[in-house]
Write a structure and sequence with these properties.
653 residues, alpha+beta, OB fold (Dihydrolipoamide Acetyltransferase, E2P), five-stranded mixed beta barrel, 12 helices
Length: 653
């Protein structure tokens, strides 16, 4: 594989350093690479333009529900069980990262935490700040500072006793983090205390089941004499992307538990058998596996490599009886294909497993062969072209309400033991009130005006009437080709038109490209900008990656005029889901609140920032009927948006 065209392509498109690891020139060709990011300049789609297993599977359950969520952006309820599973996995991984000889049974949970740093990530003309594992030489890693405590571990049972004690230390931290995540979700649902009283005690039990399954790997590694990596381990040589173990990827000293010679010890086998996993300190979606061509992404739970091959394991904090067990064979086939396709189609996984921690069982799947994986890739790419690459242009008519039946399985993802009618899926669906196929559709109020409590009357607009993006023409006056921090320019400019002067400023990195020769005095047509207020109450045109700026001749003007005011609208709709966020910029801290509305003639997002967030926002719940008076029409990405300013009023009906 060294020097092959496939590997050259992989080197060209995958920048491992952006994941916090070493540069590609140090990349191992022996032990597989479980995580990568794409070089932004060669990432054509960005996170929102990729396909994933969960997305494809969701489409098979009901195309209409998939459309509501993927095209219109409606979000389901966030139940405690969802973050509970994340807490179990975090607890398992925190124990796997540690070593019994270096970390005492009662040590604080943070003793082996990996150092992190913030790194700006970007795609197209968008960016965000990611928390990545800090692999710089000056980073504060604890592993190299620790020395073995002298305790002996002569059998698997003694390590399990240590692991049980570590689970007791890590679980409170993991579940507290999960609770914070649930509280921060604007669509949270359920009662946390009630859930924890009923299920909370199962968390440590599930984590212990995961460690017991891992210890089976340790025992096999011990019986195999340490596996393929023993000599490298004793010499202080590490894979380029090592499993998280408290030491930096560049650490080149012999591990404190490594013997000089002789038979492999149990503590060595614990180190050697450790699978790769997403580091618990890594930011969300910063250690994914991304197809070099950019259209697919996934995230492995565990990758075992101790025997010289790569085996992928997915952890489930359940007993495998629910309908989701039907999706897991396809999920593991997807991971096998993604590994193969991400390694130049020159390296295959040798094993695929689902671990059901609820009953402590392994479900083993045969890996697909290369012909099967190529066929699978063709099917996935066809799906991506039809359903993902068309985001913002999908037609609801192409996504009919066709719910699948709901199966159930024997424990451990065993044989199917039951199946309920597809109407059961509709009964559970969040969007049944909007869907004509559910039998429970609730028609929207057909009122054409809204009468407020003070008696004032406001005519209601149709969503279809709103024009979120506009075209303007004119001559550039002031031209500021501000450099964007990730390259290129994010221009700001004043535009003189027949209707006056309009200030235009970039959102994030602004337009994808600005032709050479455009500057002060150039006549231009700006298409796809959206209106927003200025700080002093005026009107400006925002330029983003959906905006184009083209130079035109005087005889090419089409008469597009500059607006003199924001386009105001009054909308009535039903709240389908909520959103909120907060952050900090050069201008200070900000907060955002929003909601996705369904109306009689289509969806729209409402959004308010900081001081414009309405007083009653905390009272708004899913399925509420609301009226927004004097919002201004704008856009966010490919969505229509009605935004709030000081003039806007929110009413809960």
């Amino acid at each position: 594989m060294i020097g092959s065209p496939q590997m050259d392509f992989l080197h060209k498109t995958c920048d491992w350093a952006r994941s916090g690891f070493k540069g590609v020139e140090h990349q191992s060709h022996i032990i597989g690479m479980p995580t990568n990011t794409l070089i932004p300049e060669e990432d054509p789609y960005g996170p929102g333009g990729r396909l994933s297993h969960s997305s494809r599977w969701g489409h098979s359950l009901c195309p209409r529900a998939w459309f509501y969520e993927r095209e219109w952006g409606w979000k389901g309820e966030a139940l405690p069980i969802l973050v509970f599973g994340h807490a179990v996995e975090e607890c398992v991984c925190r124990v796997l990262r540690e070593n019994p000889a270096l970390v005492s049974a009662n040590a604080v949970s943070e003793v082996f935490d990996s150092p992190t740093r913030e790194l700006g990530a970007y795609w197209r003309r968008r960016d965000r700040l990611n928390t990545i594992i800090d692999q710089r030489p000056e980073a504060a890693w604890n592993g190299p500072l620790l020395i073995p405590m002298g305790e002996t571990y002569g059998d698997i049972e003694s390590i399990m006793a240590w692991a049980d004690a570590r689970i007791a230390v890590h679980w409170p931290r993991a579940i507290a983090s999960a609770h914070e995540s649930w509280l921060a979700d604007a669509n949270r649902s359920g009662d946390w205390e009630e859930f924890m009283n009923a299920r909370g005690h199962q968390g440590p039990q599930l984590a212990a089941a995961g460690i017991e399954l891992h210890l089976e790997e340790v025992a096999q590694c011990l019986a195999a004499g340490g596996g393929a990596g023993l000599m490298d381990f004793r010499a202080g040589r590490r894979p380029d992307i090592p499993a998280p173990d408290g030491f930096p990827a560049t650490h080149d000293q012999t591990h404190p538990c490594a013997k000089g010679e002789g038979e492999v010890s149990l503590l060595e086998a614990w180190e050697l058998a450790r699978p790769w996993f997403v580091d618990p300190e890594a930011g969300t979606f910063t250690q994914q596996a991304i197809l070099p061509e950019g259209w697919f992404q996934g995230e492995y739970d565990l990758v075992y490599r101790w025997d010289g091959t790569s085996r992928i394991v997915d952890i489930k904090a359940s007993d495998g009886r629910s309908e989701w067990a039907a999706s897991y064979p396809v999920q593991m086939q997807t991971y096998a294909w993604l590994w193969w396709a991400s390694h130049g189609k020159d390296e295959e996984v040798t094993g695929l497993e689902t671990w059901y921690l609820g009953d402590g069982s392994r479900k083993v799947y045969p890996p697909p062969n290369t012909d099967e994986m190529q066929q699978f890739e063709d099917e996935l790419h066809d799906f991506w072209e039809q359903h993902i690459a068309t985001k913002g242009r999908r037609d609801i008519a192409d996504y009919p309400p066709q719910p699948a039946t709901v199966p159930s399985f024997a424990p451990g993802g065993g044989e199917q033991v039951g199946e309920t009618d597809s109407s059961e899926r509709c009964r559970q669906c969040y969007w049944a009130g909007e869907c004509e196929g559910s039998g429970r559709k609730v028609d929207h109020d057909g009122a054409t005006e809204f009468v407020d409590h003070d008696g004032s009357s406001h005519p209601l607009n149709n969503v279809s009437e709103l024009i979120p993006r506009i075209t303007v023409e004119g001559r550039i006056g002031t031209w500021k080709p501000n450099p964007w921090r990730f390259g290129g320019i994010a221009p700001a400019l004043s535009l003189f038109t027949g209707g006056g002067s309009l200030w235009c400023s970039p959102y994030k990195g602004g337009p994808l490209a600005v032709a050479d020769g455009i500057g002060g005095g150039t006549s231009v047509r700006i298409e796809g900008g959206y209106l927003a207020p200025t700080r002093n109450g005026g009107v400006q045109l925002k330029l983003d990656e959906h905006t184009t700026i083209s130079a035109i001749e005087e005889d090419e003007f089409e008469g597009h005029q500059s607006p003199t005011a924001l386009h105001r609208a009054n909308i009535r709709g039903r709240v389908m889901s909520l959103s909120r966020g907060e952050g900090e910029t050069n201008w200070g801290k900000w907060k955002r609140w929003g909601a996705e509305l369904a109306t009689a003639d289509g969806p729209i997002e409402i959004s308010a920032m900081s001081e414009n967030i309405p007083f009653a926002h905390d009272e708004v719940k899913r399925d509420d009927e609301v009226a927004v008076i004097a919002g201004y029409a704008t856009a966010f990405g490919d969505k229509k948006q009605l935004s709030f300013d000081a003039e806007t009023v929110l009413r809960i009906l």
